[in-house]
Amino acid sequence: MTDPDSYAGDKEVLEAWHLLTQNPNAVLIDVRTHAEWSYVGVPMFEDPARDVILVEWLSYPAMQVNADFGERLKKELDERNILPDAPLFFLCRSGVRSLHAAIEITKSWQGPCYNIASGFEGDMDSKLQRGHCNGWKQAGLPWRQF
């Protein structure tokens, strides 16, 4: 098991994508809400045999930490026969929620847990809009409507 006080760190979206596509054991976990998945879209792999795990870190609409996040994630990982030392990459809208989720799971996971720093939609631009500065969608990485 990893040191509970450590965490593998942030990865920018293109570096994360490279690591995810080069390692078939690496797992992408989207921790946004059901509403975000439905209305904004979800990341995907070009390989149809791989999927993205969707588990809310904060539950909508209260936006409180999902008390059974770790349990739900473990169930999803077990159902997919994910090796206990596989690298996990966490993604949210902008990299804040996914950072907290990655740090939390580091405490119970043997492999490295990474945060995808700019998230799915990225930072806000000068017009206070997301999706134009950085992030998964802006990088042109594969995604789909839910």
From TrEMBL:
Residues 22-102 form the Rhodanese domain. The keyword Transferase applies. Keywords: Transferase. One of its GO terms (molecular function) is transferase activity. InterPro entries: Rhodanese-like_dom (IPR001763), Rhodanese-like_dom_sf (IPR036873). This is Sulfurtransferase. It comes from Cohaesibacter celericrescens. The lineage of its organism: Bacteria, Pseudomonadati, Pseudomonadota, Alphaproteobacteria, Hyphomicrobiales.
